[in-house]
Amino acid sequence: MSVSSEQIRERIVQALGPVTSVLDVGCGDCSLVRFLAQELAREARGIDIKSSTVRETVDSHEDGRACIVQCEPMNAERMDEFPDECFDGVVSVHALHEISDPEAALCEIRRVLKRGGKLLIADFTEGETRWDEDYYTPADATRMLLEAGFHDVAVESPPGEYFMFAEACK
Questions:
Q1: How far apart are CA 92 and CA 123, in angstroms?
Q2: What distance in Å separates the CA atoms of residue 71 and residue 2, rounded to the nearest whole number?
Q3: Coil vs helix vs strand at 33
Q4: Which residues lie below 8 Å from residue 46, measured CB to CB, with a gap of 6+?
Q5: Could you give the CA distance from residue 158 to residue 124 in angstroms, rounded to a whole number?
Q6: If we measure between CA atoms, which residue out of 1, 6, 4, 14 comes closest to residue 120?
Q7: What is the DSSP letter of 98?
Q8: For the structural domain made of 5-169, what CATH number should be given?
Q9: What does the domain layout of the chain look like in residue ranges?
């Protein structure tokens, strides 16, 4: 059994709720960013070091309003294009283990997150053997989030899974 995309999306909705703006760090093909625009935010942006540039408008399923979707290539460790405190929420799904300097990326995420904003990380944990990459334990994630200056940090792993959900606030 593994954590499904649907379960991850449900957890994001539960953790962030409706927001004005949200950032997806490690957005890949931009599909989660489209979901975020349709379900949670007026503006959903995504960054990924390997991303193609995408700019489009989508309709929200709930009220039919137009929502902005934008994905672009950018390094999570240096988000110079974004001003301080510009996002209500930040998500990162299946990406923390791929960032070369996760501590720097978490500091940047905290910088671009508005005061009171929420971060949700959903990622594989140490013990995952699907790919030959370095993964973090829930204790590692907790330590990194606290060292980056987040508070109300909560990290949990579904029973029997090499996976974690980490939530934190600025």
A1: 8
A2: 27
A3: helix
A4: 23, 24, 25, 27, 30, 32, 33, 54, 70, 71, 72
A5: 11
A6: 14
A7: G
A8: 3.40.50.150
A9: 5-169
* Residue 57: C-alpha distances to residues 18, 24, 34, 61 (Å): 18, 16, 9, 13
Query: Six-digit token pair at 78?
Result: 């240096």
Token pair of 125 as six digits: 């944990």
* Residue entry with tokens 């699907």: 130
The one-digit pLDDT tens for each residue of the chain (170 residues) are 589 999 999 999 999 999 999 999 999 999 999 999 988 988 999 999 987 788 877 766 566 677 889 999 999 999 999 999 999 999 999 999 999 999 999 999 999 999 999 999 999 998 765 666 778 999 999 999 999 999 999 999 998 888 999 999 99
Which H or E run includes 104? helix 102-112
**45: which 2 tokens?**
């942006």
Identify the residue whose tokens are 């649907």: 6
